Structures are given as structure tokens and as C-alpha cells.
Input
Amino acid sequence: MMEPGLYHILFISAALFFIGIYGFFTRRNLITMLMSTELILNSVNLNFIAFNKYLWPGKMDGLFFTVFVIAIAAAEAAVGIAIIINLYRSHQSIDVASAEDLKY
Amino acid sequence: MNELLLLMKNELMVTAIIFLLLFIKVGKGMSNDRLLPLVQTLLLANLVLGCFFNQEGSLFGNMYHTTPLIALQKSILGLGVYLISLVCSDWLKKTEHLAEFFLLMLSALLGMYLLISGGNLLIFYLSLELATIPVAAMANFDLDKKRSSEGAMKLILSSAFSSGILLFGISLIYGITGTISFSELPQLADGSSLFIMAFIFLFSALAFKLSIVPFHLWTADVYEGAPVPVTAFLSVVSKGAVAFVLMTVLYKVFQPIESTWYLLVVILSVASMLIGNLFAVRQQNIKRFLAFSSIAQVGFILVGVSSGDIGSSTAVVYFVLVYLFSNLAAFGVATVIAAYSGKENINDYKGLYQTNPFLSWVMALALFSLAGIPPTAGFFGKLFLLTAGGSKGSYIYLLIAALNMIISLYYYLRVVRAMFMDKNETPVPAIQTGASAKLGLIICGIGIVLTGMMGWIYDYIQSLH
Output
């Protein structure tokens, strides 16, 4: 059984990052778009922890950063969902296509 | 302890105001007529406090760093918030949740103060989020308006996305260098392709906040949907803060790869000026119009940022001060008219001079300053920006910037023409502007005229470096 190295984890986190970006651009549901940004943030967390473990074990900055990213992601999701709920009240839908009063 | 109080006085003062508002809100509450003057007085006190006892120093192991120049930048942002509380007072008095509005706005201001002073990528990220998330909540402040929630949705989604990109860049930088401290990064930066990619990720997140051209798509929608005071805050205070921190990041942290970012800044600024100007020409809504004009103005700020010496950072700070007065005057007039008549289209401004000469003159002065016509401060601001940008000798770049100033004259003067020369059967009725809104507009007008005349302001900013 091969021990997973830095490159394996970086591959996963890069894949997660681009899946998040792809989801953000293709999904039409606001909640799913918010979830895609969470995927991006989680890929960043993986990156930080992998760099901390394999490259800079003496410097704990990466680990601290992860804790803060998780906290801020929760705050961002809270405000985002509050706004989406308010949007649902006025538009009766959480589809991006329903919110298109503002253009050009 | 004493040092902490002295160096962090701006942040502590804003925090104190936030807590005071929180206690007022949780306790008995206060009517808007009493709360608004209280907040205005406290903001003025914050502004005055920022002018004294400024010294250089750092705290918390270089995580927090301040100099007299940074203190001046904070005072400029504080001035912006104070003027918003004055010029938008007609709208603010009518809102149901005044205390919450200022809670959110001051939290964002606190985030911007920490952003400018941060000496570490962790503080940089945290304060950037603190400066963004409350603004998204503020954009949704007209709870029953469809457009307001649509604008807020666009703002929170694009800022969540951009902060994800920023974090990916930061994680790569940590992986390459093993540090997130601004003071250690320049020595460890190796200029490898991976480092440049990390820089581009980080830069694009800042470009999102500044609404530089390929990242500007949220700007006009959010500006149109949000209430006018929030739009004013977004376009003046939050842009100013990010412009200041952009200079710190480029000049200090990414100094080793200067040739790379110079090219990037030049290309993006040309794109911002061109697209901002061309789209501003066809706008009908005054807020969308000001949104595209602010995109073009950011292009000019980037011209100043590009050269990277003392002259350029002086010019940018000076221009942000001028831009603050001019843009707040324009938004102030737009708020007064929107609060009393609900009209926001440029066509509704036709014949405004017959009924509201004071408002028309302030608006005309602001638009002249934004266009950069000589006696106003906007001319000197743009002159210094272009001079700073020219210090690297790329004259074609300056020529493009100068040509863009000519295009911008067309659409700024279109509004002036509508107000002064066009006939209208049913102009906006005469408006009794409130006393504090009038005071704010007069301060902005004096600022537009005098900042350009008084050369010592520029010299003073330069002496702080």
C-alpha cells in the first residue's frame, strides 16, 4: 500500500477547486452556487494542511489559516442564505434566471 | 498598554461606537431624529481623533502596522463615512433600522482600517471579509424591493467566489515560501511560475473588489439595486481602502516581480478606462451611470499605481481624497432627489436647474471634477496620476489615458446639459433639503474647489512617506 504524498493531496485539492468553479458557473440554483463556493474554500483548506504537513511542519500558519477559513465560510454562508431567503420572499424562486431585473 | 491605545486609536474608537450602538439597540432604542445626530457627532470625533498623535509602530508581532501615512488614509476613509452620514441623512431618517445600518457600515469601516494596517496575509484575508460581508447585508437594506435583494445576491455570491480565489492564491504562496508575513515574503519570493500564478490569483480577488474590468460585471447591478447611501459607500470608501491596500501589496510584498505586475496593471487599466467609458455613455439610470464612471476612474487610479514610486502613492492618496468629495457630492444629490421624488433616471433630471438651483450647481461641480476640468480638484488629481504614471516613460499609455478623459467629457456633460439646458414640462419639484444634507453637500463642494487650489495638501501627503 503506497503512502499518499503531497502531490496526491494537491491533485485532489486542485480538482476540488475547479469542480467548485465549474459548479459556480453552470448551476442555476442559488443554494447550489453557494455550495460550490464552499467546495472552493474546502480545497483551500486541504492545500493549507497538506503544505503544513509535508513542506513546512515547523510553521503552523497554515493550520491556523484553516481554522479561520472555516469560521469565515460559516459567516459568509449565513449572510448568503439570509439574502437568498429574502430573495425567495420577493421572487418566489431561488433560480438565478428569476432574478434578472438588472441588466446592461 | 499605552502603546496599544495610541497606535490602534482609530480601530478602538470605531469599536466603541459599534458597541454603543449595540447597547442602544438592545436597550430602550432611540428615535431616528436623536440617533442620527449622535452618530454624526461620534463619527466627527473619530475623524478629529485621527488627526493627532500619529506615529509609526507595529503591534502583535508585526501583524498590525501603522505609519502617519496609514493614519492619514484611515482619516480619509473616516471622512468618507462621516460625509455619507451627512449627505444621505434624508434617506437615513426615513429608514426603519437606522442603528443596524450604522452597525453594519462601521463594521465594514473597521475591516477597512485593519485591512490597511495589516502586516500579514491572515489579517489581510480576515479584514477583507469583514469589509465585504456587512456591505452585502447593507445592499439588501430595502427589504421589500426586488432589485435590492437581487443586487445583494449578486454581491455576496461574487464576493464569496472572489475570496475563494484569493485564498487559493494565499495557500500557494504559503506552499512556496512557508510564510504569510508581509515583511518576510519579499526575501523569500522566488519569481517562479507558480509564484506568479499565486500572485495573479491574489490580484484578481483585489480586482474584484476594485471592479477592474474583466472583474467588473457585478458593479453596475449592485450599484443600481442597493440603496444610494450603500452605493456611495461601495464606490467611495470601499474602493479607496482597496486602492490603498493594493499599493501596499504591490510595492512591498510583490516588489521582486515588479516587471510582471507592471504589465498586468497597464493592460487592466487600459481595459477599465475604455470599457467603463464606453458603457457609461449608454446608461439611463443615474446610479448605473455613476457605476460605470467609477469603473473608468479606477482605470485612472491604476495609471497612478503602475509606476510604483513615492510620487505614485502620493498621487493615488490625493486622488482618492478628491474622488471622495466629487463622488459623494454626486451621490448626495442623487440621494436627495431619490428620497423626495423617487426618480433615478437621467431624463428626470431635465430642467432641474429651474426648480432646484442649489442641487444642480453641486451636481455640476461634482461632474466637472469627475471629468477633470481645470479649476476643480479633479483636474489636479488626474494630472498628478498621469504624471506619476509617466515616470516610466510609456507615453502611448499616457496618450490612451488622455484620450479616455476626452470620451468621459461627453457623458459627464450630457447630465449637466440635461440639468441646465434641456426643457422639461414636469421637472422634479422644488425640494427642501434637510440642514445636515445641505451641510454635507456644501462641505463636498468646498472640498472639490479648495483641494485643488491648496498645493500644501499634496506636499503634506508627500512629506508623510
About this structure: Chain A touches chain B through 41 residues (CB under 8 Å). Residues 61-91 of chain A form the longest helix (31 residues). The two ends of chain A are 57 Å apart (CA to CA). The mean pLDDT of chain A is 88.
